[in-house]
Amino acid sequence: MPIPTTPGGQPATAPALLQNGLRHGRYEDFQALFTGTLFVSITLMLFAQAGLLTGSTAGIAFLIHYWSGLPLGGVFFALNLPFYWFAWKRMGAEFTIKTFISVGFLSLLTDLGPKVIHVDYLNPLFAAVLGGLLLGTGCLFLARHRASLGGATILSLYLQERYGIPAGKVQLIIDCTVVAFALLIVPIDRVLYSILAAVVMGVFLWMSHKPGRYVGR
Q: 5 — phi, psi (to 5°)?
């Protein structure tokens, strides 16, 4: 999941985002968190049906889900639990609460989704492109309202602040590790489609998320 940035392009903590003028009302926050997590949950449902996966903590949840058969949403929620203490200490209460709500929403929607949505046929190429766009859009909603989808983002920001390790490098290491383990569990063509989805999401965010664009609005 993408890491919010400052106008200088550096990963930003919640206080930094507040200083840059990205302020929203509670209703706006709720609407954005719900919509963002809804888009991401649809992506996870599409990926699960197509046998794809994503990076970060969600990618680890996918691997456990494929290997064990445990509910994807429940696994994702459990994986994020150890990181909230770091978030509270390093990112502040507002960021942590919003992230907890987002992760809870996502876990619930992901497990309830198959009961209300069923796709009889899903081409993995289509799932990769559509999923990448939906995932990018959902994460963009969350980033602009000072929230994240947990684990890897929190850990990346903590390691950067505590030890000076660039957050982007930590995120890349985690994502590469997920892909490496995926090759042992997921067919290679599905791994390649998953990489395509990550590229689509990355290009979308690169074009759409301009740090500082919404400052003061």
A: -125, 160
Query: Tokens representing 7?
Result: 């106008």
- The two tokens of residue 43 are 């992506």
Model pLDDT, residue 13: 46
Q: Tell me the per-residue pLDDT of 137-190, one tens digit each, with 9 for 90 and over.
A: 888 888 777 777 777 777 776 777 778 877 667 777 888 888 888 988 889 999
Compute the distance between CA of residue 70 and CA of residue 50 in angstroms, rounded to an integer: 17
The model's pTM: 0.75
Integer Cα distance of 146 and 111 in angstroms: 25
Cβ(93)–Cβ(127) below 8 Å:
no
Best CA proximity match to 84, nearest among 70, 60, 101: 101
The residue ranges of DSSP E strands in the chain, in sequence order, are none
CB atoms within 10 A of CB 216: 8
The segment with the largest mean pLDDT, out of 5-9, 72-76, 83-87, 151-155, is: 72-76
Q: What are phi and psi of 84, to 5 degrees?
A: -70, -30
Q: Is 13 left (phi over 0), alpha (psi -120 to 50) or beta?
A: beta
Q: Any idea what the Cα angle at residue 95 is, between residues 25 and 14, rounded to 5°?
A: 90
